[in-house]
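The passage that follows is intended for readers who have already worked through the single-chain material. We present the inputs for a multi-component assembly, then the predicted structure in tokenized form, and finally a short commentary. You are encouraged to pause after the input and sketch how you expect the pieces to fit together before reading on.
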Amino acid sequence: MGKENFVEQIADIEADFPRWYTDVVLKTELVDYGPVKGTMVIRPYGYAVWENIQAELDSRFKATGHKNAYFPLLIPMSYFTKEAEHVEGFAPEVAVVTRAGGEELAEPLAIRPTSETIIGTMYSRWLQSWRDLPIKINQWCNVMRWEKTTRPFLRTSEFLWQEGHTAHATEEEAMAETMQMLGVYKEFAENVLAIPVICGRKTEKEKFAGAVATFGMEAMMKDGKSLQAGTSHYLGQNFSKSFEIRYLDKDGSQKYAYTSSWGVSTRLIGALIMAHGDSRGLVLPPKVAPVQAVIIPIAAKKGGVVEKCLEVKAELEKMSVRVEFDSSDASPGWKFNEWEMKGVPVRIEIGPRDIENGKAAIFRRDTLVKEEYPLGGIGETVLSLLSAIQKDMLEAARKRRDGRIVCADDLDGINDGVEKGNFVKAGWCGCRECEDKVKAVTAATARVFAEGETAEKCAVCGKKAEHVVIFARAY
Amino acid sequence: MGKENFVEQIADIEADFPRWYTDVVLKTELVDYGPVKGTMVIRPYGYAVWENIQAELDSRFKATGHKNAYFPLLIPMSYFTKEAEHVEGFAPEVAVVTRAGGEELAEPLAIRPTSETIIGTMYSRWLQSWRDLPIKINQWCNVMRWEKTTRPFLRTSEFLWQEGHTAHATEEEAMAETMQMLGVYKEFAENVLAIPVICGRKTEKEKFAGAVATFGMEAMMKDGKSLQAGTSHYLGQNFSKSFEIRYLDKDGSQKYAYTSSWGVSTRLIGALIMAHGDSRGLVLPPKVAPVQAVIIPIAAKKGGVVEKCLEVKAELEKMSVRVEFDSSDASPGWKFNEWEMKGVPVRIEIGPRDIENGKAAIFRRDTLVKEEYPLGGIGETVLSLLSAIQKDMLEAARKRRDGRIVCADDLDGINDGVEKGNFVKAGWCGCRECEDKVKAVTAATARVFAEGETAEKCAVCGKKAEHVVIFARAY
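Having made your guess, compare it with the prediction:
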């Protein structure tokens, strides 16, 4: 089976990006559809990516003083009504348990779409004195939001995520936490996922239901659309007042805490696919790739080839490289395609002639370049290649993105820009009417404010601009 | 606040074991009650124990060739009816989603009580040829079983667990997998949790709903009752026939796979508490203790004390010891009690006189013995103490348990044995009637078969014994 034949299995990335995405996630066995509409099964290859993401994030959360905990899945429906904006935002998407243990429940229970309400309830119980602050807890869990249109990783009725929830004595501290975690996400996205992100505040329309302010990080996908890859919310005293999160301060008075929440989800896997993938399939950054290097024997039946492959494998394992030796019956060409589709950063080819010459051919998935390297010290070579790939992937993604950020002065300009697959910066007066108009005309939404930038006029109404907004079509 | 005063907060372990348990789990902040009846919040201290359990088990699962994945929470109700025994066992405990996204669902969805049915459905889709076997997947997730009587960690409507699900070409392979994972659990229970366990096959009555055979591991708690700490099920072709888990074999014919499943849960935290705890509270084995050593300054305001404590802390951290320095305002006595209650394996006391003498007092939580050790090389000292504690806790638990296993020839003997807090070995004819009678008269159940042991007569009916059974009252 030739390469062309094989790659035909995946739709052309230029011609049909959505179809390419679906083909890639299914054929690389990252994911499968669950039996219930809108659900997904995260298969071992996809889950291994998630485990790597978890490990990297979890160590960052702990290094910034957070501890993990676990709160119940089921939340009394009445909790949602305590914060007016929150219930409006989430009630329509909630899945509800009405029967359990063979009986109808007195009060229906929601499967958590997010946990501010139940965690707030527990914090109000735990928080007594100023000495108990700050409370900095994160949880890794599943959540459920019943969506009409779903796509694996990007929008599914159930997904996995982490949600951090903190409570502080002052506004300043809570805001500092909100911004710190946004910074943690950005550093992680860039250094681990190799995805450059634009961070900034969201408009009132786009903010989290119940937040005072939401800060998001937006990543550009290869089709020029934006994907919201993580959010950090400053909740002020909205939830502490609704859930009585109070404490006795040093001065003897009862005060409401200031809270924050922040989260990223399995959506990040979708971001990885669409930020780096190409016509051959996935391109995974080494830090999250389940397999970082694959060894493929050429003329495996010739004496010494398998032995040398196993020797190289052992050397790489000793250096903690996640390595596979593909000893299956398939042809080398078939294997090349298969592992390229799966996005493995480095492929090592070893055949009788290579052994004779003391060399191996190493193929880089990101650049598609194959070069010969000495077999001696191949472990070090692979390590330095992996580190170069990690860095180069970020730079390549940054270049791609930076070449696709344009400015516009009017609605036509915004439309033209997003139509061509760009992020578009434009002035905005701050009124909801103009924001809605952009959406209606261009199908783009306000992603984040371009922090620190200014414009003269609103691109929609021509009045004085209050902000520069980055508009894009979004996932 | 003196020690006596403080310990009064916990009920007397000898006088009221259940109350002692509840006091300990709440006051050490392992857990709290959730707002919905029967649910629990696993607080950071408890969750840290779970994280340590997960890390130890997960590396064992991977070393035996398993990969993690994630399957959906919601299972169509109709799936449960496909395996007759399975539906009978689980349907009464299921929580059901009937409404989602503002609409009534056409088919009600169960929150997974266990995932054989949905994983079986996916395996039937993935499994094509003999080349795809074995499939060896594990998932870490939440499950829900609506229970009438609940207690934190031991029995809650929602709990966290792992469930391994494998499919094999032959009966032998599936049975070997079942036994291998039982062995992994036993080694883990003994070497990590320091809990000796008795492993063996369960009776028909006690087996998993839908299994051909269930193997369990039973641990003795300090009140002499047994806790089922893990199970491994050989499912034969029951689920593969119900869910069409078939493959094309080498000989060109379609065959049903043989499957297994195995799991342990947050119940293990309950086992830890009740296997090791004492009148002062928790006693945690070093390998899962969130804090392995606590440093407490004596006369902290005297020059050099805090500095020395921080120096020792840094030394221990360098050796990867999980260490806390308690610099709070509370008195040393109060801190002693607090950290003893929390079960921290080693306490290091450092005061001006200790520094002068170049020594520190180290208290072992398991033996309650305090001894002086040189400050020089204290890191090595703590490491070797932690390793000794780990080993000694297992041996102590083994001695306690072995002293409480008795034999009985008749129903009175069984009753007398369990009444005194023993495991009781007795002959059993194999009939359900006699098994039920033991339960009715003694409140004890058949835990596992005593493998390889024989008896003359059934202790209930006097007929020929087919098995020796270990009877105990159980959690």
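Commentary: Chain A has a mean pLDDT of 96. Residues 378-402 of chain A form the longest helix (25 residues). How closely did your sketch match?
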